[in-house]
Design goal:
One of its GO terms (cellular component) is cytoplasm. By secondary structure, the protein is mostly helical. It is built from 17 helices and 3 strands.
Length: 429
């Protein structure tokens, strides 16, 4: 009897007091082992907004480990957006990375010395190869013309706007990462995208969450329909494509030439360390391959999603489309629009900002932070009528663009830098 009472007391203490015991912000009471996973549904923003109303702007959820959710515009802007790299330190998914890369490699998940050095190196490389250069802008412009030509030739038939966006964005990311120029209708980008869409549901599913907690479950994969085996096969297929691209880059690589891509710069750094007799450190093959895979994730799906949303809102709001066209006609005329023209196009900037939008807590170092930008964008206290598309709200009485510093739509830190390039260049080209 005493044991039963003790167990009940321990369960109640865990259920109602675990966050306070661990010094975490308040949040929905977690269940043992599974945390708050049963409370999540497809309308995630709705659930998070309900918890925000109940527990405050910063609260804790267990999935199944404790993660601190930030759902406040001011806090996100002052901390996560301005200093996103300080929020990448999180519990590393060791089992997933072991299946994928054979270890904790790449550009994400934890702020260790390898990740920090590679991120810094990547940003430096992008600056040196002309991340926002006229050369890259020319490539994007040519792809944009190709997309427009195909849409015009559709002769009013129904078309999938995502298909051409995916080809263009995939080719741009491939060019920046490997220095390889692909034909617009190449088979490689759709193939790679298909593979990633096959493993994402398994990778983000509940099984992998439990595998991270109980690695022994990998030995009983057959009980779960061999999901882990399939995940490893998909990971291997994606790695093979990236490895082949690296081999192609290596064939034409000359360490004496200025690098034109991330992989070329990485290879030159590896060669430099080898010639100097230095330890390889962060610059080895597995880290290079994993970083290339991460660059795809940072630049592809996020940008395609934004462009798809931009088109959707133009279709649903023809008045916005007419205003945009008039501004372009009056300001740009028949000449080619350039990146620097954004200063002359306040309504275009307001439109893009609108499309991207549609506290004091002490949190221990190493705690996983979940900055919920989409939740903030759907909160009526943060943005008036969040379900109403209105670029005009970002234009003042004198017709000037009013830049609102909202959290970026997808992430912060390094991912934000890669994503921002595509979002700033592509829609205006």
């Amino acid at each position: 009897m005493f044991v039963i009472v003790l167990i009940l007391m321990a369960a109640l203490l865990y259920y109602f007091g675990i966050n306070r015991i661990l010094g975490l912000p308040a949040g929905p009471p977690p269940l043992p082992l599974i945390g708050n996973m049963l409370s999540f549904q497809w309308d995630l923003d709705k659930v998070l907004l309900e918890w925000k109303a109940r527990y405050g702007r910063v609260f804790t959820v267990w999935l199944p480990y404790p993660m601190v959710v930030i759902g406040d515009h001011k806090i996100l802007q002052e901390h996560v957006v301005r200093d996103g790299n300080n929020f990448i330190d999180r519990k590393i998914p060791k089992q997933m990375l072991d299946l994928w890369f054979g270890g904790p490699y790449g550009l994400g998940f934890q702020k260790n010395s390898i990740v920090k050095e590679t991120r810094k190196f990547a940003l430096k490389t992008f600056h040196e190869i002309g991340f926002n250069s006229a050369t890259v802008e020319d490539i994007v412009h040519n792809y944009a013309l190709e997309i427009i030509s195909r849409w015009r030739n559709s002769e009013g038939a129904a078309l999938n706007v995502s298909e051409n966006f995916e080809k263009a964005i995939g080719n741009v990311v491939w060019r920046i990462t490997f220095g390889i120029d692909l034909d617009f209708d190449n088979d490689l980008v759709p193939k790679y995208r298909k593979i990633t869409h096959q493993f994402i549901p398994i990778m983000a599913g509940p099984l992998m969450m439990f595998v991270e907690m109980f690695p022994i479950l990998r030995k009983f994969d057959w009980l779960f329909g061999n999901q882990i085996r399939r995940l490893k096969e998909h990971f291997g297929a994606s790695n093979d494509i990236v490895a082949d691209a690296i081999k192609t880059t290596e064939k034409s690589f000359n360490p004496d030439n200025q690098p034109g891509s991330f992989i070329e710069a990485f290879l030159r750094e590896m060669k430099k360390n080898e010639d100097a007799g230095k330890p390889e450190g962060s610059f080895h093959y597995r880290q290079m391959l994993a970083s290339a895979v991460n660059l795809w994730g940072a630049g592809f799906d996020t940008t395609v999603s934004i462009l798809r949303l931009c088109v959707l809102e133009l279709i649903n709001h023809p008045d916005v489309q007419r205003k945009l066209q008039k501004e372009i006609d009056d300001t740009i005329g028949d000449r080619r629009i350039r990146y620097e023209d954004q200063k002359l196009l306040p309504y275009m900037c307001a439109y893009l900002q609108e499309a991207s939008i549609f506290g004091s807590n002490h949190i221990a170092a190493g705690t996983t932070i979940l900055p919920q930008y989409s939740m903030v964008h759907m909160d009526e206290k943060e943005f008036e009528r969040p379900d109403f598309f209105c670029p005009g709200r970002h234009i003042d009485d004198e017709g000037r663009f009013v830049k609102v510093p909202p959290p970026v739509t997808f992430s912060g830190g390094f991912t934000r830098a890669v994503h921002d390039f595509n979002v700033r260049i592509l829609p205006r080209t």
